[in-house]
Amino acid sequence: MKILVLNGPNLNMLGLREPELYGSRDYAALEEYVRGEADRRGVRAEIRQTNHEGTLVDWIQQARGAFDAIVLNAAAYTHTSVAVLDALKAVNVRTVEVHLTEPKNREDFRKVSYVGMVAEKTFSGRGFDSYGDAIAYLAGGEGR
Ligand code: DQA
Which atom belonging to ligand 1 lies closest to the Cα atom of 17? Predict the structure, then answer.
């Protein structure tokens, strides 16, 4: 199984951005964590990050036929991007939504998720382990 792990804007700032919310580990640590979880579950994972909405759309489109599933933390675009929603609908690749924090427990504007409208499952509020849960779910395990 090949999984494409996509991260949206400001996730490259992990470790620096609002550490009280997102923790002190940096983006390189997240990449390492994801690779470790993929190995542990016997799946292949490619992990990418962009600050640009159009790049996310391009990568989602390119996933068609190339990956079995997308694990998507669209970050702020989760709550704003009809373009990301339309791309996900267009490619029809299994998608699991992830968030480090629990957006539903934060500001009202984070309560809408365009990604969640098409994702088959959402894992949130568990820091890096939200990604681990998503990988375990896709790999067919019972989670941690
Ligand atoms: C986030 C939650 C979003 O609301 C926020 O805009 C982010 C990160 C998370 O992983 O908790 O940038 O997706």
Answer: 12
The reply to whether the predicted model has a pTM over 0.90 is yes
Answer yes or no: is pLDDT of 106 > 80: yes
Please identify every residue annotated as catalytic.
22, 99
Residue corresponding to tokens 């983006």: 27
**CB-based pocket (< 6 A), ligand 1:** 10, 73, 75-76, 78, 99-101, 103, 110
Domains of the chain by range and CATH? Answer: 2-138 (3.40.50.9100)
Q: Using 50, 70 and 90 to split pLDDT, how confident is the model at 142? A: very low
Q: What is the mean pLDDT of residues 52-77?
A: 98
Q: Distance, CA 125 to ligand 1 centroid (Å)?
A: 10
